[in-house]
Amino acid sequence: MTTPLPSPASTLPLLFLLLLLLLHPFPAIANLHNLRTKSLKLPPTHSTKPTEFFEVTKPISLPNTIPCIHHIFTHDFASTFVKPPFLTNYTPPSHCPSSHGFSKIVLEWNATCKGRQFDRIFGLWLGGVELLRSCTAEPRPNGILWTVRKDVTKYSSSLLSKRRQDLAVFLGNIVDGTYTGIYHVNVSIYFYPASGENSGGGGNSKAADLILPISRNVENLNDGLWFQIENSSTRIESSEFTIPSNAYRAVLEVYVSPHQDDEFWYTNYPNDYIVANNLTSTPGNGPFREVVVSLDGVITVGAVWPFTVIYTGGINPLLWRPISGIGSFDLPTYDIELTPVLGNLLDGKAHSLGFSVTNGLSVWFVDANLHLWVDREGEKTTEGKLVAHGSELGLTSDANFTGLNGKFETGASRWVSTEGWVKSSNGNITTRFDQRFSYSNSMEMGKGGDSQRVKQRCNVSDKVSFSGGGPSLRSTNRFSVELYTDSKAGRNNTVLLETRLALGLGNRRFRGGKEVSRLGNLQRARGEMVVQGDLVSGGFGATKQWYNYGGEEEKCYFRDVSSKNYTIVHDRQGIKCHK
User: Fold this and answer.
1) Which H or E run includes 536?
2) Which helix (H) or strand (E) holds 293?
3) What number of other Cβ atoms are within 10 A of residue 464's Cβ?
């Protein structure tokens, strides 16, 4: 649950709410939304050892050099909701000299917590540039701990800048007589010196020379630096910027996370179904969402069809203990190539990048980092021009329902294309950026609305072509989620909540037509919760995950791991490549 403060309606006793549901059943996912705003007491544990939570991902490939450790801060996040972000002054490490620079920079977030608390979304920004978007683990009485390690080498121009910068962290938390968990956090950055052999890459793999924040100013904020986008497909949140006149390449990195009424957007009902059944408090607008990025409010430069990240308190919290959902500890980012539109930006004037959410409800947290490469050979890029651009969204929907039972089919497709040239000391290079999207969502409501079955597929393809400027870059992503939820009355005024889930992510990357990496990541989970009043009096959660990565430039890695009720029951991992 990433809404820090329960709504006024959620202050009703949960038992009273559940009795109402038994007499006047709402659809199953509405129950989940309501339960999501409750702090559910789990039965006490007899263990005294803290539980370590983790997200399955490949280890970061590190050079054979000894890192300099730069401790950034230690801080306790207690009553931080609706308060300014935590700020600390950041300067590059003076004790880490390296004649060849740094070939790898790794951010490490270590946290512990004990007691009772929701999961909380948080972000970390350096000079307005977001370095990490993440979700906390939910604590238990004996305590928890978790570590997030992220390769932040691509932010090296910000991390090594000599100018004074504030590092900001927003983690909105509430501590009172009910919510007792305080998040104790340590953050360090590891700088790995480069040797002569690994002193940095070239071409398209080189880190940007400059990164501009496309986010809110930290001054006078009682929130994160992200934009809050809600309740309108036409509402655009934007930020102005000016780029150097000698920039020759630009890539926008977008951070996205959905919350509150759109946290489970892929389960939201069509509005006709809501109106027909008088479900006035149930999130709607159907199950399709996208983030659209526009330049100066006129040109659509790209779109994001996000992966369905499930936070550590989502659907059924018992599923994510100790294995967290895919992407929950390090939310994915999405790149949009802006080089084709540089010709519009090299005039020395301020321009704006804006974000909107198609069909969006409250609330989406969105911001971005603008990565820029500059021409060291000249003070000014001589020319640039946007040659062509276009974008089109197609949506289809079909509904067949009687009362609270029915089936719904939703489909979507989109293409975005931009093309332009830039003339610099690298030559006159034409860049073309193409995005192709396809989407389907099948939803079935049964048992008078007490059960819901969702099957969603999303395919995304991005391609960047350089005419005279190096090999093309292409990536394909496949996102899938299958979810079944059911609620039924139990004995002694209890409610049994059943969940079955499959969550998948596939990614392939190509350079010059040759595959350079492949990732397959799949989670299957099932669980039950017996709820009585505000107490989870019983239940279980079991999760199995298969992770398989193969790369041309990095070692292969696989992991096959399973858990049940906080315990790892199977774990096998290695560096063997599996096709």
Assistant:
1) strand 535-551
2) strand 290-295
3) 22
Residue 329 has pLDDT above 90, yes or no: yes
The H or E element spanning position 507 is: strand 495-511
Cβ atoms 156, 24 nearer than 8 A: no
For residue 67, tell me if it sits in a domain.
yes
Give the whole-angstrom CA distance, residue 279 versus residue 26: 8
Rounded-to-integer distance, Cα 327 and Cα 56, Å: 9
Residue 34 has pLDDT above 60, yes or no: no
pTM here is 0.92
The single-letter DSSP state of residue 95 is T
In a domain, 3, yes or no: no
**Cα-Cα-Cα-Cα dihedral sign, residues 427, 380, 293, 256:** positive
Centre a 10 Å sphere on the Cβ of residue 49 and count the other Cβ atoms it contains: 8
Please give the C-alpha separations between residue 70 and each of 88, 91, 107, 168, in angstroms, as whole numbers.
14, 10, 10, 16
Contact (Cβ atoms closer than 8 angstroms) between residue 157 and residue 208: yes
Q: What is the extent of the structural domain holding 367?
A: 8-574
Rounded Cα distance, 379 and 317, in Å: 55
Q: Is 202 helix (H, G, I), strand (E, B) or coil?
A: coil
DSSP state of 94: T
CA nearest neighbour of 484 among 319, 322, 351: 319
Rounded distance between C-alpha atoms, residue 31 and residue 429, angstroms: 55
Domain assignment of residue 317, yes or no: yes
Q: Please name which of 85, 268, 64 lies closest in space to residue 172, comparing C-alpha atoms.
A: 85
455 token code pair? 């099957």
Q: Is the pLDDT of residue 454 over 70?
A: yes
Strand ranges inside 85-194, DSSP E: 86-90, 102-113, 121-126, 129-135, 144-151, 165-171, 183-193
- Residues whose CB falls within 8 Å of the CB of residue 2, separated by 6 or more in sequence, listed in order: 118, 119, 120, 121, 135, 257, 259, 260, 263, 311, 313
Whether 496 and 485 have beta carbons less than 8 Å apart is answered as no
What are the C-alpha distances in Å from 55 to residues 149, 321, 560?
10, 10, 13
Upstream peptide bond of 43 is cis (omega within 30 degrees of 0): no
Query: What total number of domains does the chain contain?
Result: 1
Q: What are the φ and ψ backbone dihedral angles of 272, each rounded to 5 degrees?
A: -60, -40
In a domain, 557, yes or no: yes
Q: If DSSP codes are grouped into helix, strand and coil, which group holds residue 375?
A: coil
3-state secondary structure of 43: coil
Query: For 327, left (φ over 0), alpha (ψ -120 to 50), or beta?
Result: left
- 183-241 pLDDT tens trace: 999 999 999 998 865 554 433 458 999 999 999 999 989 999 999 998 766 778 999 99
Structure-block tokens of residue 322:
């100790």
Cα 197 to Cα 6, 64, 409: the distances in Å are 54, 11, 54
The one-character DSSP state at 54 is B
Task: Confirm if 367 and 215 have CB atoms less than 8 A apart.
Answer: yes
* pLDDT tens string 510-533: 999 999 999 999 999 999 998 887
Report helix angle 14-23 to 28-36, nearest 10: 170
pLDDT at position 202: 36
CA distance readout (Å), 296 to 55, 275, 304, 356, 383: 38, 37, 18, 13, 20
The strand pairing partners of 414, in sequence order, are 393, 437
Give the integer Cα–Cα distance in Å for 135 and 258.
Answer: 12
